[in-house]
Amino acid sequence: MSKFVCSMLLPALVVSAAAIPTRAQSGELPAYLKDRGTGQPTSMFGTYINDGELLVYPFFEYYLDDDMEYSPQELGYGLDEDYRGKYRASEYLLFVAYGFTEWLAVELEAAVYIDARLETSPDDPTGVPSVIEESGTGDVEGQLRVRIARETESRPEFFSYFEAVSPQQEDKVLIGTPDWEYKLGAGVVRGFGFGTMTFRLAGEYEMEESVFELGEYALEYLNRLSPTWRLYLGLEGNQDELEFIPEAQWHIRTDKIVVKLNSAVGVTSKATDWAPEVGVVFSF
Fold this sequence. Notes:
Blueprint lengths: L1 H18 L20 E2 L6 E2 L4 E17 L12 E17 L4 E16 L11 E6 L3 E10 L7 E9 L15 E12 L2 E12 L4 E14 L4 E10 L2 E13 L3 E10 L7 E10 L1
């Protein structure tokens, strides 16, 4: 796996070093950068990071899903058939990112604590309990972000990223990650007069299943409404799970303190019905 990852990332690093110009001198930003500034995109919606910048984002997320799809086999009860249950979870997370250069940044995100509950289907004929509850630490994941080419008047910005999720709570069926998971993706950003559009697509590899398949995809919109408010709208999916995500960003102190409020709503039946999120981004 490591040889595969290196072979995918090395061309991006070489292209980045050759294609990215030095940081623009101070002055008024071109129109295509008015929404996001000069930073490269992070994995957090509508959030960008600059060279030498440290971002710290503690946040809370809640999950409500009245028709969550599950398989008794995934819960350790043999039958490989899909049923629908009621799922609730509260999660406290911490996101940290640092911009090493204008084209390279790293991220770390950890679920400090998650409390999850699943009411299984009454139609489930297996011996799975009617209610499963688990709590504790959750996923820990890291990302390497690479800006391949800056946006100019004549072309969009291109970026790539690699993500690794480490095994956590292997004995837990709701909050655990049984083995390493990897993700390799790329995206494009373009600023317009009506706002900034981003499209990204990734492939995923799970060590437990030894399968590489199409992973997350997203179409995103960001608009700086005023010096203190920005609006984000996104359609994000993973295979047949699709969510619509509106977010308001309140820039309390320029870009040093930003309050983020979003609420993901499931578009397809297999997506989580409702997942609100609130947090504060601190920039150093």
